[in-house]
Write the C-alpha cells for this entry.
Amino acid sequence: MIDFTFTEEQEMFRKAAREFAETKIAPRVAEMEETGEVSDAVVKAMGEAEMMAITIPEEYGGLGLGYTERLIAIEEVSRVSVAAAMMLQVFALGIEPIVKFGSEDLKKKYLPGLATGERLSTTAVTEATGGSDPSGIRSSYKKDGDDFILNGRKCFITNSHIADTVTVLAKDEDDPKAFCAFVLDKDMAGWKATHKEHKFGMRGCNTGELAFENCRIPASQMLGEEGKGLRVTMSAIGDVGRGGMVGVALGLQAACLEESIKFANERILYGKPIAALQTIQNKLADMKIDLEAGRLLGYRAAAMQDKGLRSSNEFAVAKYYTTEACQRAAKMAVDIHGGYGCMEEYAVSRYLRDAYVVGPSAGTSDIMKVIIGRWALS
Amino acid sequence: MRSQNRIHIMLNIVVCVKAVPDPKEACNIKIDPATKTLLRCDVPMVVNPLDKNAMEVALQLKEKTDVRITVLSMGPPEAGNIVKEGLALGADRGILLSDPAFGGADTFATAFTLAKGIEKIGHHDVILCGMASSDGSTEWVGPQIATFLKLPVVTMVKEIVKTDVPWWKVKASIDNGYRLMQVKLPAVFTVTREVNTPRTLSFSGIIKARKKEIEQWGIDDLGVSSESVGLKGSPTIVSQLKTTEGKREVEFIKGTRAEKAEFLVQKLIGTGLL
Amino acid sequence: MMAEQKNKVGPVWVIAEQIDCRLLSVSTQLIGQARKLADELNTSVEAVLLGDGIEGQIQELIAAGAKRVYLGNAPELAFYHPERYTEIIVNLAEGHKPEIILIGSTAMGRELAPQMAARLKTGLTAHCIDLVLDEDKNLEQHIPAYGGLLSIVCPKRRPQMATVASGVFTTPEPDETRTGEVIELLLPDIVYDRIETLQVVREEPKGVPLESADIVVAGGAGAGDLEGWHKIADLANCLNGALGATRPAVDEGWTELTTMIGQSGKMVSPQLYIGVGLSGEQQHLVGVVDAKVMVAINIDNRSPVFEQVDYGIVDDCREFLPVLIEKIKAYQERLVTC
C-alpha cells in the first residue's frame, strides 16, 4: 500500500509548530489585525523557533529538513494566522534561490543569518507589467566592469519593508531574452522599499514596492548563470512559492472548519444545536472533503519535491485546489455563523478577508489553470 | 607547583512522566460500566501537564550546570511517544517501563514499579514528578517512590530557591502559605504549576532526539515478581461504579435577557438570600 | 462456657493535625465519621496527634469521640516533619494494627499519608467524598470519576487508608462528658538531618473564605477569557459572596488553585450556589457538599449542570451577567433607600 501516514518525527514537528503558533503567534493576532503591520515579536519568535531554518542545509546553520516538514510548519502557523504564515513562506522564497543557485561564498555570507532570523528575505520578481508572466518585466541591468547596474521597480512584494536580503530578477537592457537573478542586501546603495500597500486581508503581512535606481551590484552577487536568471526565480516561485501557498491555504481551511464545528455545536436553534441540521452538515462535509483532498494533493507534491522529482505541475494543481477551497471554506464558515460572521470579534470574518488575498498570491487561479491545461495537453 | 583538583559534579536527574488523556478534551471521556476503566474515545494521550513543569526544572538546570536527565514513564507501548517528547525537549536518556504485567496498577504498584526502574537506572540525585496527574490526581506517586527508595521528599514545590550540591532549598505550598525546606540530595520533589512555564518542543530538539533511543524495560528487566506489580500488586481495587442521580429538578427561567435576570433576582429574593 | 468470639477488629484511627496548637476542623470531622464506622465494626476510635504544647487539644479529640489519644508532645514535633512524623506513626501502626486510618487532605496529610501507606504496604485512596462499610465490612472509599462515582476497596491489606478533605463530613457536636485515655509516646532518639523546615510563611486568604461562605459563585471554562472571568468575580462581589472555580478556570490562569472547588479542592456548603459557565463535572460538584439553593447559568441547554440545580438560565454568561448584576444592584439600592 502507498504510505499515506506521517512519520512519528513529522507528527512531533507538527506538534512543535502548533505549540509555537498557539503560544507565540496567537496573542499577537489582534494587534496585527488592527495595525496591519508586521509584529516584531512574531518575527523574533519565528527566528527563535527555527522556522526560517527548516529548508536551509545544516552546514550553513539550518535544520536541513525537507519540503514536507516545511509544509507542516506553514500549515500549523496559518491555522493561527494567515498573515504570519504568508510572511514565513515568503522568507523561504528568498532563501531557496541562494541554496540552489548561490556560490559557496554567497551561501556562507547569507544562509547562517537567514537561518536564525537575523536576516530576513524575500524574492522580487513581480512588476506592474508582469507577475504571472515574468518575461514581461521591465527592470533591467547593464554590465559595468565587474559590476551590474540595476534599475527598475517591483510591486506586490511580500516582506518588502522588512527584508534586508532580496533575490531580484531583472532582464538584460540590451537582450530581452536574457535575465539575471541577483542577491541584494542592505549594504548596497541604490535600492529601497517605497510604497506600502494596505490590504483588506492578510493584515500583519507586509506587502509593498521596491525601487532600484542605479543600484551597483558586484558580479559575485549573481545567482546561477548570467543570462539564465529566469530559471533561478522560476524554480523558487514555482515549487517553493506554490508549495507555501498550499500550506497557507490548508491552515486556513482547517481553521474555518474548526471554528464552524465549534459554533455549530454551541448555537442552539429550535431547541437543538445547528450542527443537527442537514444544511449545516452539508457545509461541514464540503469543508471536510476539501481539506482531505487538499492535504493529499499538497503532501503528495511535497513528497515528490523531497525526492528531487519535478513537481511544478503537481504544485500548480495543489495550489489551485487549496486556494480556491479556502475561499469556499471561509464563505461557508461565515454563513454558518449567520449574523455573527459579520462581526469583527468572530475569527471567521477575518478568515474571509484573508482567503481572498490568498487566492491571487503566487499566481492567480486562472494562471494555474493555464499551467494545468498545458500539462493535460502535453 | 600545586595542581588544582577540580571536583566534577554531575547531577543525575530522573523525571517521571505520565501519559494522560488530553485534559482539554476531558469532557469526552466516560467510564465503561462493564470494565470500570476509562473509555478513551479517541481522546489523544499527552504528557501530564504538571510533568512538563517537572521536566522544565531539569532542563533549566541543564542550561546552568552539568546535568544528565533521564525521562522515565510507565505505560503501554504507545506511551513511548511521550518519552520521545521528553528526549526531544532535551533529556539524555529515555526509558519506558512497559509490560502487560504492569497493567491495572494503582498508585502503590505504580510507585513501586517506577522505584524499581529508578534503582535500575542507577545513580540518581534528584527525582522530579508533577504534583498530581490530571486523570487520577491522587498525588501519591511521588511520595511513595521516595518511601520505596528511602529518600526524603518534598511535595507541592512552587519555587526552587537554591540548587547547591548536596543541599537544595525549595518553597513548598501549604494551605494559605508556604514552607521553606532544606533538603539533602538525593531526594524526590513534586512540583506545582507555579514553579515555572514549560518550554515548547523545538524542531532542532526533535532532530537531536533521532540519535537518542528509548529503552523499554519489562518485568524481567526489573527483576520483580508479577505479584508485586500491576493489578496483582495493587492493594486497592475498584469495586463498583455508580452513576450519580440528580436530586434536584431544574426550573428553567425563560424570557428575554432582561426578563430572565429579573425573574432570577425575584427567585433569590423569595428564598431570602438576597 | 464458650461464647462465640468474633475476630476482634483493630481500632479506627484518625491522624489528627494541629497548626499552632489549634486543632484543624477536619480532624474532629473525621473522628465523627470514624465513630460511625467503629460502631459498625464493634471497635473504637483512636486519635494520633503530634505537636508541641498540645495538651489542650486532648479533650477536644476525646469530646469528638476518640476513646484513646496517642500524644507526641515535644519541641521537635512542633511543626510537621515528614521523616519524623512518618517514622513515629508507622511504628505505632505496626504495633497496634488499626483496621482503618483516616487522614485529612491537608498539605501535611497529602504528603504523610502516601509515605505511611508505602511503609505499611497498604492501599490509600485520595480525596474521598464518602466512607461506608460494604457487606464484608471492608471500607468502601467513594471518589467521583468521569461522570460517576467509584467505590474503591482494599480487601486484602490492613490498615485501610483514606484521605478526606475538610467539609466532606460535618463537625460532630462535642460531648464533654466523654472520657478517654491518653498515651504519651516515647520518641525515638534519631537525628533527622536530611530535611529541615527553615521557615513557615502564612498568608491571609483573600476575600470571603469559601468554606464558610453563605453565597458561593463558581466559574468555569465558559467564562471564555479573563474579561469574562472578571464578570463572574463581579457577580460574587456584588452578592458579598465567595468566588470559586473549576479546574479548567484554574488551568487557564484566571484564578488561584486555592479558589478551586471540587474533589481535590475546597468543599463548600453555602446557602446559595451559582455556577456560571461550567458544565457541572462530577469532580467539581462533589465539592458542593450541600447548598440550599443551586443556580446554573450556561449557554448550552443540554449541559449536564442543569440536572443538578434548582434554577437554570440558558444564556451566554458574558452577556447575561452584566444585566443580572445591574438588576441586583438596583434591588440593593432600593433596600438601602427604603
In short: DSSP finds eight helices and 18 strands in chain C. The CA atoms of residues 37 and 59 of chain C lie 21 Å apart. The first helix of chain C runs from residue 25 to 41. Chain C touches chain A at residues 299-301, 314 (CB under 8 Å).
